[in-house]
Amino acid sequence: MCGIVGYIGTRHAAPLLMQGLRRLEYRGYDSAGIATLENGSLFCERSVGHIDALKEKIGDQRPEGTIGLAHTRWATHGGVSEKNAHPHRACNDSLVIVHNGIIENYRELRAELQATHTFTSDTDSEVLAHLIEVEYQGDLRHAVARALKKVRGTYGVVVMHASEPERLIAARMGSPLVIGMGKGEYFVASDATPLLPYTKDVTYLDDGEIAELRRGEVRIYDLLEQSVQKNIHHIEWDDEQAQKQGYSHFMLKEIFEQPIVFRDAVRGRKIPEEGTAYLGGLNMSEPQMRAVSRVLFVACGTAYHAGMIGKYAFERLARIPCEVEVASEFRYRDCVLDENTLVFAISQSGETADTLAAVREARRKGAIVRGIVNVVGSTIARETDGGTYIHAGPELAVASTKAFTNMVAVILLYALQFGRLKHMSLAAGQEFLQAHFDISTKMEEVLQQNDEVARIAQRYVHYRDFLFLGRGINYPVALEGSLKLKEISYIHSEAYPAGEMKHGVNALLGPELPVLAVMTKNQLYEKMRSNVEEVRARGSKVILIATEGDTDARAIADDVIFVPQTIEALEPLLNTIPLQLFAYHVATLLGRDVDRPRNLAKSVTVE
Ligand code: G6P
Q1: Which of 53, 425, 486, 505 has the fewest Cβ atoms surrounding its Cβ within 10 A?
Q2: Which tens digits make up the pLDDT trace of 135-157?
Q3: Count H helices, E strands: the chain?
Q4: In which residue ranges of the chain is CATH 3.60.20.10 found?
Q5: What is the rounded CA–CA span in Å between residue 128 and residue 134?
Q6: SS3 labels along 110-147
Q7: How far is the CA of 349 from the centre of ligand 1 (A)?
């Protein structure tokens, strides 16, 4: 995820900004840039790749000035290139901005501005620089406030103008910014990490606020330019804690980020009036899409489970035959592929050796190959002929959580887009999007039960085996819950489609084997309920994931975690979260190294 750092004070800004960028590296990035201001002239340098590459580019030019801003970019709109790196300048080279977030109406704004402004990048962010330039009449704060009124989307933005060396302007809508209060100097950054060596006194900007940072003071305004009073918080965190934003582990932070990154994954990709989605990176015309006769997901680990959900969703929504296969099997199988087979390679890292080999094999055999990838510019992203970034931001915990949800989010939009080109009616598409609309709020509701899940985990931590059950689209959810538990707690667990129990696994049931079952209200509810009753009858303890308002659930379970109701296709986005939390709490209670479990790697680049 992009990082921002800005400084105004009495010290030489450039070294502070470069140090700030290094402290933001943990967020992941693909390019970086810096701008400082001295004697009315702007210094600006950008580079693709590491901060060292930027340092090399700056070389022995000595960026002067005691005011400046800098940025690490994680590409969203526009590829990874120097021209797309921040800071972005407007036409007359006096104004410079760094921006996090997505300007949703940038296409319209760009089209309006294009006649009179020259654009030098493919980004949505540059549009904002030109908009502010249009509004600029000698007062940068007014210009920023006016420009932001025209913008739809999210931003954390910091702006500097060559004629105003005495102030930096920062504004926030949906993309965090924090201001560090030093002595006679101020910092602004996308999180507190870069500020901590200099100050632990901070003010958090809220949505719709604009900050004016001067050497002697900081003032904060709302979008109507009325002054706002803010509290100063004292941060007690050390560096690692700051990167974890106060969470005890990266995994917990990433679980809690799911509502936010889900919004990032779907933003700008839905067309409610047409009841469909549009994932431009697919690079296929509508006739080509209609000609797809078979979809194949290849992936490993958690990404494979996302693919399994994709199979249920694609067959249900798009009515296209669909298969999913573990990449390490696919690559050595004589799989029959043709030019109407669409292969999706799903991967958080974009570097998993087996998935990459599967991509190469599928391309060799003439299939259409696309990526569903998190890390921008990764090998799988480059070697597929298109696809979609899932925008989960950097995922640092080895056990994948938020990347899984965002893989599912993107696959569901693909299923909708294909469905609407084939059998699905406008009404059905709109109904799907209607349910989709408040999923992130419902995810937040699920997360509010974290303490309850922790209490439940406490009651089960001493068991040595677990069984996870699900049916239909919740079977892969059970598999994913089981995988999470195995990965980070080192407890043995299995996941089964509940209807298959009587063919073997029933023999294991009894007081020593607790069962986690996903029994939400969908078309298989009654079937699942019978399976749960069978489990209970054989003496196993039962923890249920059930739909809010299901009054029967408590009667047939020892513990219940309730989730809000949604349509069946979207259930995995909610139902997975309590299982992630359960695994997390069991593992922490056992004192495991949750973020770095033994014998596992985040990115498996060897076979
Ligand atoms: C490793 C990770 C898993 C991940 C799998 C696939 O095993 O520990 O969390 O699901 O690789 O990784 P990918 O980056 O391709 O999604």
Answers
A1: 425
A2: 999 999 999 999 999 999 889 99
A3: 20, 27
A4: 3-241
A5: 10
A6: HHHHCCCCCCCCCCCHHHHHHHHHHHCCCCHHHHHHHH
A7: 7
The secondary structure of 260-276 as a DSSP string is: HHHHHHHTT-EEGGGTE
The pLDDT tens digits of the residues spanning 205-221 come to 988 999 999 998 999 99
Q: Is the CB of 349 under 6 A from ligand 1?
A: yes
SS3 labels along 63-89: CCCCEEEEEEECCCCCCCCCCCCCCEE
What was the pLDDT predicted at 304? Answer: 98
Structure-block tokens of residue 243: 């990167």
Question: For residues 281 and 13, what is the distance between their CA atoms, to the nearest angstrom?
Answer: 39
pLDDT category of residue 1 using cuts at 50, 70 and 90: low
Distances (CA, A) of 273 to 105, 378, 562: 16, 34, 32
pTM of the model: 0.79
- Whole-number Å distance, alpha carbon 44 to ligand 1 midpoint, is 38
Question: How much is the mean pLDDT over the chain?
Answer: 94
Amino acid at 535: V
CB of 352 within 6 A of ligand 1: the answer is: yes
For atom 2 of ligand 1, which residue has the closest CA? 602
Token pair listed for 600? 């596992």
Quick one: pLDDT band at residue 440, thresholds 50, 70, 90?
Answer: very high
396 pLDDT more than 90:
no
Nearest CA to ligand 1 atom 15: 347
Pick the CATH number of 244-437 from 3.40.5.10, 3.30.70.260, 3.40.50.300, 3.40.50.10490: 3.40.50.10490
Distance CA 472, CA 524 (A): 7
Q: Active-site positions?
A: 2, 602
- Give the span between the Cα atoms of 168 and 194, in whole angstroms: 17
Domain 3-241 belongs in CATH node 3.60.20.10: yes
pLDDT above 70 coverage of the chain, percent: 99
Report whether residue 602 contacts ligand 1, using a CB cutoff of 6 Å: yes
Residue 521: its pLDDT value, please?
A: 97
Query: 598 CB under 6 A from ligand 1?
Result: no
Nearest to 72 by CA among 20, 111, 121, 33: 33
Phi, psi values for residue 306, rounded to 5°? -60, -40
Tell me what pLDDT residue 607 has.
Answer: 66
Residues of the chain with CATH 3.40.50.10490: 244-437, 449-607
User: In 420-558, which ranges are E strands?
Assistant: 465-470, 492-497, 515-519, 542-547
**CATH numeric code, 449-607:** 3.40.50.10490
Report pLDDT for 23: 87
User: What is the average pLDDT across 154-178?
Assistant: 94
Ligand 1 pocket, mutate which of 325, 352, 479, 483 (most atoms under 8 A from CB): 352
Distances (CA, A) of 73 to 110, 168, 603: 21, 20, 21
Q: What is the pLDDT of residues 283-301, one digit of tens each?
A: 999 999 999 999 999 999 9
CB 476 within 8 A of CB 522: no
